[in-house]
Amino acid sequence: MNSSSGDHLDFRDLLSYTAEQDLASFIHVTDAGAGSNVTLKIDTNGAIGGVDFTNPNQTIILGDVGTGSINLSYLEDHAILL
């Protein structure tokens, strides 16, 4: 994943999120290790009604991009999440 080459995930239409809220209430990221999958579990309404990553509204699997250290902060810091 490389934002400078155009890799972005745009969740603006999916999430009921404002800048004052904690994005971790909406997106849970799991990196299974180097060369493996990165899984994003999405709770579209976040803390409203309770955060639920066991039954997410959406699950996104990014195949073979894991490094063992990709987390939500990494995705935000590298402008991969919009």
Major β-sheet strand ordering: 1-2-3
What are the segments in which pLDDT stays under 50 over at least 5 consecutive residues? none
Global structural class: mainly beta
Order of helical and strand elements = EEEH
Instruction: Write down how many β-strands occur, each being a DSSP E stretch of 2 or more residues.
Output: 3
The Cα radius of gyration reads 12 Å
Helix proportion range? under 10%
Largest sheet: 3 strands, antiparallel
Number of domains: 1
Q: What is the count of helical runs?
A: 1
Outline, from the CA principal axes?
A: globular
Mean pLDDT: 85
Strand content: 15-25%
**Which oligomeric state applies?**
single chain
Lay out the secondary structure.
Blueprint (H helix, E strand, L loop, with lengths): L26 E5 L6 E5 L15 E5 L9 H6 L5
Antiparallel strand pairs: 1-2, 2-3
How does this structure look, described?
The protein is mainly beta. It has one domain (3-77). The protein contains 1 helix and 3 strands; from the N terminus they run βββα. It has one helix spanning 72-77; strands spanning 27-31, 38-42, 58-62. A 3-stranded antiparallel beta sheet has the order 1-2-3, with no helix packed on it. The longest helix is centred in the last third of the chain and has 6 residues, at 72-77. 10% of the residues are buried. The mean pLDDT is 85.
